[in-house]
C-alpha cells in the first residue's frame, strides 16, 4: 500500500468521526432542552455501559490475539503462512466468542435496573 494513500484515508475517517461526535452532542442538547431528565439520564447510562462493554471486548480480543502470537512463536513459525494467519484469525474469533459468552450469560449489564 502506498503511504500517500494513508493521509486521505485517515483524513476521511477523522472527518466522519468528528461529524458523529457533533451529531451526538446536538442530540444531547436537544434532549436537555426538551426538559426530560430521565431520558437524558437513561441515554448517558446506556452510553456508559456501551463504553465498558467496548473496553471488555477490546481487552478480551487483544488478549486472545496475543495468545495467538505466542502460539506462533512457540511453534517456531518465522514466515507468514496460511497456518499463522489461521491461528491469528482463530484467536480473534475466540476472543469475540468469549466476549459474547461473558455479556450474554454474565447477568444484567452494569447500571441496568434489576
Detail the poorly predicted runs: none
Shape label: flat
How far do the termini sit from each other? Answer: 51 Å
- The assembly state of the depicted protein chains is single chain
Strand content: under 5%
Backbone structural class:
mainly alpha
Rg from C-alpha positions? 20 Å
Helix fraction, binned, reads: over 70%
Biggest β-sheet, characterized? Answer: none
Average predicted confidence as pLDDT = 83
Helix-strand sequence: HHH
Continuous helix count: 3
Record field, number of beta strands: 0
Features:
114 residues, mainly alpha
Give a topology summary:
Blueprint (H helix, E strand, L loop, with lengths): L5 H29 L2 H39 L6 H24 L9
Helix pairs in contact: 2-3
Outline the structure in words.
The chain is an all-alpha fold and 114 residues long. Helices cover 81% and strands 0% of the residues. It contains three helices and no strands. The chain has helices at 6-34, 37-75, 82-105.
What can be said about this structure in brief?
By secondary structure, the protein is an all-alpha fold. It is built from 3 helices and no strands.
Amino acid at each position: 500500500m502506498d503511504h500517500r494513500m494513508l493521509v486521505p484515508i485517515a483524513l476521511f475517517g477523522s472527518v466522519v468521526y468528528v461529524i458523529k461526535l457533533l451529531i451526538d452532542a446536538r442530540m444531547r442538547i436537544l434532549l436537555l432542552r426538551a426538559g426530560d431528565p430521565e431520558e437524558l439520564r437513561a441515554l448517558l447510562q446506556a452510553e456508559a455501559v456501551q463504553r465498558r462493554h467496548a473496553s471488555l471486548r477490546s481487552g478480551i480480543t487483544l488478549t486472545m490475539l496475543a495468545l495467538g502470537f505466542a502460539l506462533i512463536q512457540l511453534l517456531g513459525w518465522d514466515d507468514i503462512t496460511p497456518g499463522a494467519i489461521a491461528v491469528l484469525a482463530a484467536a480473534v474469533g475466540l476472543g469475540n466468542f468469549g466476549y459474547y459468552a461473558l455479556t450474554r450469560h454474565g447477568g444484567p449489564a452494569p447500571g441496568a435496573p434489576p
